[in-house]
Structure to design on (455 residues):
């Protein structure tokens, strides 16, 4: 229950971090908030030879308004900011609503946005919310900077489109279109525990109050965050009333996801939760969009 | 051989300078290097909350931080709660836990107390639901939580009166 020895490096800048990553590559592990990495090191499931601690890279710890109502989040911004910082309430209320479900206050005080996203745990809330918000991620590497949209970023269980010598530096949350609503819900055995299933939704309406664009994303029902694309097709162009939402949720649970069974819940129960949660988040997102 | 790194950490207002191995957890640093054994170690993977301490005033798991990461930071442990100015008089939270029977075996208590200090600062008049949510990251196997919730309500009431 103690980490194996490692070489500890504490860079002070992104440039310094990138040169360390270039030097050590696969041998090195980036330490952000450490709320997932340190437990795996305590269990010795991970025994990195080199730890590159990002906690002194102060240039990554920020939040600032993005273009036309969006939000830019530095990779080392702590998760608790999502709960209390007014920029989130103003510009990313879905993140604000999700945050209390992300583990416990003690974890959110250390945990970072970039860490949770780069870790890509299929049971984590933030990756699912990033897909629902159509977020983009700025990635820095030896060859400069590139941007990866959330839907191309999560490629499997604990796997992302990043290379070992690359660093996630910023999360870009675009503004929601007019007449948009959002919602997040999950079911966990204990508040703050890993969810048995969870769902995030964003619904945007056109001037006729019909669904112009929607995203519905699940967590804990697959190898990563899972977008319910079939369900969203069922919503397109419709007025998302009770019947339409029920049909979309049915498609989501029956067709869009393929959950596994484990000690916590059977696949069948997860499908049931996904259907119920989909109805709830789509309904709430639609109601908020109507009032927006 | 593990490398050794020089750190200086302020713990309960006292500055400590030590040389530590890179993989030493903050919880083990407090207990073994500084002999502050009030911070308890339960699960060592961030689930039980027994090792909760304050890092610059905010509650964190000391088993999920390396000692080297505390370099230059301010840590408060349960030993720092009672007021030295009042000859070690109990903090109102400690007194309320004692009176309301908010503990039995006491193993989890330091973690609960450290979680509650910043919580009551931010929520001076908490609802029962807020208290239960704030304590969701701390496990107690004795009390069934009822008396812990009562202790928090009692402490909040008294702290509001004396404020």
């Amino acid at each position: 229950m103690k980490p194996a020895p490692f070489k500890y490096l504490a860079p002070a800048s992104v440039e310094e971090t990138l040169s360390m990553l270039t030097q050590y590559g696969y041998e090195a592990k980036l330490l952000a908030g450490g709320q997932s990495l340190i437990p795996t090191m305590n269990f010795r499931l991970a025994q990195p030879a080199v730890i590159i601690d990002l906690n002194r890279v102060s240039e990554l710890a920020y939040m600032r308004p993005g273009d036309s109502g969006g939000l830019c989040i530095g990779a080392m911004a702590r998760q608790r900011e999502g709960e209390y910082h007014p920029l989130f309430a103003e510009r990313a209320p879905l993140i604000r609503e999700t945050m209390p479900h992300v583990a416990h206050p003690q974890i959110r005080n250390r945990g970072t946005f970039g860490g949770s996203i780069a870790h890509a745990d299929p049971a984590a809330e933030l990756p699912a919310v990033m897909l629902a918000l159509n977020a983009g991620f700025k990635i820095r590497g030896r060859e400069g900077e590139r941007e990866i949209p959330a839907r191309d970023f999560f490629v499997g269980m604990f796997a992302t489109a990043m290379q070992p010598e690359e660093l996630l530096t910023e999360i870009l949350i675009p503004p929601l279109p007019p007449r948009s609503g959002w919602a997040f819900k999950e079911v966990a055995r204990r508040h703050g525990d890993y969810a048995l299933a969870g769902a995030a939704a964003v619904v945007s309406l056109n001037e006729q109050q019909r669904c112009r664009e929607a995203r519905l994303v699940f967590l804990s029902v697959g190898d990563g965050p899972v977008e319910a694309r079939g369900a969203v097709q069922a919503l397109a162009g419709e007025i998302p009333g009770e019947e339409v939402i029920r049909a979309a949720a049915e498609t989501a649970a029956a067709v869009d996801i393929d959950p596994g069974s484990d000690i916590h819940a059977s696949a069948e129960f997860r499908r049931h939760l996904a259907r119920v949660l989909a109805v709830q988040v789509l309904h709430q997102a639609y109601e908020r969009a109507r009032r927006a | 051989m593990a490398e050794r790194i020089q750190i200086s950490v302020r713990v309960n207002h006292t500055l400590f300078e030590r040389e530590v191995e890179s993989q030493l957890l903050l919880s083990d640093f407090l207990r073994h290097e500084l002999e502050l054994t009030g911070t308890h170690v339960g699960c060592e993977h961030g689930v039980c909350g027994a090792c909760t301490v304050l890092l610059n005033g905010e509650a964190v798991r000391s088993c999920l931080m390396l000692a080297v990461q505390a370099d230059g930071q301010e840590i408060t442990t349960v030993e720092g709660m009672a007021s030295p100015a009042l000859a070690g008089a109990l903090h109102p939270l400690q007194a309320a836990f004692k009176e309301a029977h908010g503990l039995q075996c006491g193993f989890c208590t330091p973690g609960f107390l450290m979680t509650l200090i910043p919580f009551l600062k931010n929520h001076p008049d908490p609802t029962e639901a807020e208290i239960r949510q704030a304590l969701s990251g701390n496990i107690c196997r004795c009390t069934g939580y009822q008396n812990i919730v009562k202790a928090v309500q009692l402490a909040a009431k008294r702290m509001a009166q004396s404020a």
Remarks:
- The longest strand of chain A covers residues 197-205.
- Chain A has a mean pLDDT of 97.
